[in-house]
Amino acid sequence: QVQLLESGGGLVQAGGSLRLSCAASGDTICISAMDWYRRAPGKERELVAAITSGGSANYADSVKGRFTISRDNAKNTLYLQMNSLKPEDTAVYYCTADCTRIYSAIYWGQGTQVTVSS
C-alpha cells in the first residue's frame, strides 16, 4: 500500500504561481511513474503531467511551457510548479503513483484545491 498526501493548493490571482507537493509513504519502492491529474467543476478529469522514475516528463498541451513536474526519489515526493496561472487552471489537483508492476494498482491522493481568480 502507498499513501499520497498533496499540499500547496490555494487561491492565487491570474498570472501567479503555486507549487504543489505530493508526499508518498508506505511501500514506495513499488512506485514507477507518477502523475498529476486535475478535475475542474463540470469537466472530465484531465492528465496534466506525468514523470517516469527516470525523470522523463510529458505535459498536456494546455499547460506546456507553464507547468513543470519533478520528483525527488530520495524524499518520495512529487512536485508540480505552476506558473502563469489562468482561471481555467482552477480545479482539484490529484497525484497518482503507479505500482502496477508489483501490486497491479495505481494509488491516488485526496486532492488539493487550486483556485485562480481573474
Task: Give a description of the structure.
The protein has one helix spanning 100-103, and strands spanning 2-7, 10-13, 18-26, 34-39, 46-51, 57-59, 67-72, 77-82, 91-99, 105-108, 112-117. The strands form 2 sheets. Strands 2, 4, 5, 6, 9, 10 and 11 form a 7-stranded mixed beta sheet that branches. Strands 1-3-8-7 form a 4-stranded antiparallel beta sheet, with no helix packed on it. It has 118 residues and is mostly beta strands. The longest helix has 4 residues, at 100-103. The protein contains 1 helix and 11 strands; from the N terminus they run βββββββββαββ.
Overall morphology: globular
Number of strands: 11
**Category from helices, strands and their pairing:** mainly beta
Taking pLDDT < 50 over at least 5 consecutive residues as the criterion, the unreliable ranges are: none
Which bin fits the share of residues in helices?
under 10%
- Which band does the percent of strand residues land in? over 45%
- Write the element-wise H/E pattern from the N-terminal end onward: EEEEEEEEEHEE
